[in-house]
């Protein structure tokens, strides 16, 4: 709006008053627009800040979860590689049979090694899954190596244990390998 001339107001006082009101209104409108613009920018910045804050919190939680999982399950490859050692020690004990004068020292050495390995497994959260003949087959912990109709058993019962299984904390590292009855008589 053009600046009013001083001599225009002298001729028409009503016009001068109207123009003064319009000039004030225009200043108020400009201030309102500027205030609304600043509020919109503030709200946009607050929204961006809140999102960045939430993003940072989510990243922190994700990193914390990954750290915990790495602590618990980071050794799973090594543990999996040690399972055949456990199996072989167990087979050696079973194959040796009863203690005799000749094999007592050897059997005691194998038993000691087996006990130490079992303690180390337990210390690191590795738990043996040791099903027994007659237990019910559980596909979450057992792997059926074969099925056979064995009289005197129910379908789904374990009839032979080929190898023990292992859990690492709450995860299955290796299922127990078993034979399962398919007898329905």
TrEMBL record:
It is found in: Cytoplasm. Transmembrane segments: none annotated. It comes from the Bacteria. One of its GO terms (cellular component) is cytoplasm. Residues 55-74 are annotated as: Disordered. Homodimer. HAMAP family: GrpE (MF_01151). Participates actively in the response to hyperosmotic and heat shock by preventing the aggregation of stress-denatured proteins, in association with DnaK and GrpE. It is the nucleotide exchange factor for DnaK and may function as a thermosensor. Unfolded proteins bind initially to DnaJ; upon interaction with the DnaJ-bound protein, DnaK hydrolyzes its bound ATP, resulting in the formation of a stable complex. GrpE releases ADP from DnaK; ATP binding to DnaK triggers the release of the substrate protein, thus completing the reaction cycle. PANTHER family: GRPE PROTEIN, GRPE PROTEIN HOMOLOG, MITOCHONDRIAL. This is Protein GrpE. The gene is grpE.
């Amino acid at each position: 709006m053009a600046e009013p001339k001083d001599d225009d107001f002298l001729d028409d006082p009503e016009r001068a008053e109207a123009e003064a009101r319009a000039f004030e209104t225009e200043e108020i409108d400009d201030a309102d627009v500027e205030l609304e613009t600043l509020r919109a920018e503030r709200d946009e910045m607050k929204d961006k800040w809140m999102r960045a804050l939430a993003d940072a919190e989510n990243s922190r939680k994700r990193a914390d979860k990954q750290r915990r999982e790495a602590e618990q399950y980071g050794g799973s490859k090594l543990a999996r590689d040690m399972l055949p050692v456990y199996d072989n020690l167990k087979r050696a004990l079973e194959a040796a049979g009863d203690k005799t004068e000749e094999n007592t020292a050897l059997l005691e050495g194998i038993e000691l090694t087996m006990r130490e390995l079992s303690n180390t497994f337990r210390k690191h959260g590795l738990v043996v899954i040791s099903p027994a003949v007659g237990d019910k087959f559980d596909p979450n912990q057992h792997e059926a190596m074969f099925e056979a109709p064995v009289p005197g058993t129910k379908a789904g019962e374990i009839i032979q244990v080929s190898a023990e299984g292992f859990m690492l904390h709450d995860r299955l590292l290796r299922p127990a390998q078993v034979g399962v009855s398919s007898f329905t008589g």
